[in-house]
Specification:
This protein has about 325 residues and is α+β, with helices and mostly antiparallel strands. It has 3 domains: about 130 residues, no CATH class; about 80 residues, Thrombin, subunit H; about 100 residues, no CATH class. It is about 25% helix and about 25% strand. It is built from 7 helices and 17 strands. Strand 4 and strand 5 form a beta hairpin. Helix 5 runs antiparallel to helix 7.
C-alpha cells in the first residue's frame, strides 16, 4: 500500500497507465538541475535510449523530469545534452538531481496524473469522508479549534468523557465513559477572540481548503475535563507528493477508488496506447468488469469505482452510525 501521494501516483502508472511492456522512452539525468530559468541544459545518458528514441529529442520535443515539463530547443547527441525551455505548459520550475528520470514525450505527464489524483481525492466528499478524534478540554462557551487542518472538520460523530452522573452533573474520575453532546460552529477566517487570560488571540487559516475557523461547544459535562470528540472531516487537499495518506485522511481501502477514477479521467476522450488498453482490460476482467473498447474501458472503470465506493460507504456507516442532531447539537 502507498504511504504518500507520490507512491499513489506511481501505483496509478504501474497498474493502469503505463504497464511494464509499454514503458515510455526515458533516460537518466547525469547532471543536476537548479530551480532557475537560467539553467537550461539537460545532461542525459544516451545508453537508455535507442537511436530512434534519441532522434525524438529534436527541437520541439517535450521531456519531463519529476513534474516539470521542458520544451527541447536544441539537441547535441555527441555531448548528450539538451537545451530546453523550462517550466513548459504551466508546470512549476523545480530542482532535479542526478539519476532523476527524464521521460520523452510522455503520454500521461506526471503533473497531469498528480492533478487527477488531487481531483479524485477532493471529489470523494461528501460520499465518503475522513475522520479525526480530538482531545478537547471542556469549558464554558465556545472552544476555538486551531490545530493543523481543523478547518476541514465538518461535524461531530461521537463524543465521550469520564462522566458518570448526569442528574448531578458529576465529573468523578474513574474508568466509566459516557456520551457527551457537542455542537460545532463555523466562524469567519480570520477569527479574533479574547482568551481566559484576557489576551486577544487571532486564528487564521492560510492553507488550502475551507475558508473558515471551527469552534465547538460541549454540553452536559463540567469544565476542565477531557472530552474525546470524533469528527467527520473533508479530505485534506494534497499539495506535494510527499504528503502522507494519513495526513490527507485516506485509508488504504480508498486507494483503488482513487486509481480507478484517475484512469477513467485521463483516458476520457482520447486514444490510448494499445498496451495500456490491454493492461486495463485485463485488470477489469479480473475485477469482473469486462471491457471491449476504449470508451467501454472508461465506463467499466467508473462502474468499478462506484462499486468500491458503495462498499466503503457501508463500512463507514457500520463504524460511525449517524448521531441524532437537534438544533445543530449532536447527541451520540
Amino acid at each position: 500500500m502507498s504511504q504518500n501521494i507520490g507512491e499513489l501516483v506511481d501505483r496509478v502508472y504501474r497498474e493502469y497507465l503505463e504497464p511494464n511492456d509499454d514503458i515510455q522512452s526515458f533516460s537518466i539525468l547525469r547532471g543536476a538541475m537548479d530551480a532557475d530559468t537560467t539553467d537550461q541544459t539537460v545532461e542525459y545518458i544516451s545508453d537508455y535510449l535507442t537511436s530512434e528514441e534519441e532522434d525524438l529529442l529534436e527541437p520541439g520535443a517535450v521531456v519531463e523530469v519529476n513534474r516539470e515539463l521542458m520544451l527541447v530547443t536544441a539537441l547535441n547527441t555527441s555531448a548528450e545534452q539538451l537545451t530546453v525551455k523550462r517550466a513548459f505548459r504551466g508546470t512549476t520550475l523545480a530542482a532535479h538531481l542526478v539519476d532523476d528520470v527524464m521521460r520523452v514525450n510522455p503520454v500521461f505527464p506526471r503533473k497531469t496524473v498528480f492533478d487527477a489524483v488531487c481531483d479524485q481525492i477532493k471529489n470523494l466528499y461528501p460520499t465518503l469522508f475522513a475522520t479525526e478524534t480530538k482531545s478537547i478540554t471542556s469549558k464554558t462557551g465556545y472552544i476555538p479549534l486551531s490545530g493543523t487542518n481543523d478547518n476541514y472538520l465538518i461535524a461531530p460523530i461521537q463524543a465521550i468523557s469520564q462522566y458518570t452522573d448526569f442528574s448531578a452533573g458529576s465529573d468523578e474520575t474513574g474508568t466509566v465513559y459516557a456520551g457527551v453532546a457537542v455542537e460545532i460552529v463555523d466562524l469567519p477566517n480570520p477569527f479574533t477572540y479574547t482568551d481566559a487570560n484576557g489576551v486577544s488571540q487571532t486564528i487564521t487559516y492560510s492553507n488550502n481548503g475551507p475558508n473558515k475557523v471551527n469552534a465547538v461547544q460541549i454540553y452536559n459535562v463540567n469544565a476542565g475535563h477531557t472530552v474525546f470528540v470524533t469528527f467527520k472531516k473533508k479530505f485534506v487537499e494534497p499539495t506535494e507528493e510527499s504528503d502522507t495518506l494519513a495526513t490527507i485522511g485516506l485509508e488504504s481501502e480508498y486507494e483503488p477508488i482513487i486509481m480507478a477514477g484517475v484512469a477513467a479521467q485521463l483516458i476520457s476522450g482520447r486514444d490510448i496506447p494499445a498496451a495500456t488498453a490491454e493492461n486495463i482490460t485485463q485488470s477489469m476482467q479480473t475485477q469482473s468488469f469486462p471491457v471491449n473498447s476504449a470508451s467501454t474501458i472508461r465506463n467499466s472503470l467508473l462502474q468499478y469505482q462506484r462499486a468500491l465506493i458503495q462498499q466503503a460507504r457501508k463500512d463507514l456507516r457500520a463504524r460511525y452510525p449517524e448521531p441524532v442532531t437537534i438544533n445543530k447539537i449532536s447527541y451520540t
